[in-house]
Specification:
InterPro entries: 2Fe-2S_ferredoxin-like_sf (IPR036010), 2Fe-2S_ferredoxin-type (IPR001041), Beta-grasp_dom_sf (IPR012675)
CATH class: Alpha Beta
Largest sheet: 5 strands, mixed
CATH superfamily: Beta-grasp domain
Number of strands: 9
Strand order of the largest sheet: 2-1-8-4-6
Radius of gyration: 13 Å
Pfam families: Fer2
Number of domains: 1
Strand content: 25-35%
Organism: uncultured Rubrobacteraceae bacterium
Structural class: alpha+beta
GO molecular function: iron-sulfur cluster binding
Order of helices and strands: EEEHEEHEEEHE
Protein name: Ferredoxin
CATH topology: Ubiquitin-like (UB roll)
Distance between the termini: 28 Å
Low-confidence stretches: none
Amino acid sequence: MPRIEVEGAGDFQVEEGKRLVLAIEEDAGVDILHRCGAYAKCTTCRVEFLEGEPGKMTQAEIEVLQSRGLLGQARLSCQVLCDHDMNVRPLMTVTSTGLDGPGKTPEPNITPEPEWVDKPA
């Protein structure tokens, strides 16, 4: 089982293949945002990798991060699978933003259907 360390929340063993956004919310108990429902549209679930950043990204993640000027600065936790040890810093939470809730509950599988590509250099 992969170990996910979430800054400010602790270190957690999570189910292999679980979406990172769900691991942060359910296992670490962090009120991370996912306003679009985790469809790689809004970037509110973004995280900073402190260690263990995956070398693959979904095409949807690349496109939305490029369009927002965030490519190379953050990753979308809704587009990352927990398949190895990681250390992350959630960048937007309900608490830090004062919003009324995180958004629609993400589905267990990555949405939209992932097209995996190598992370741009």
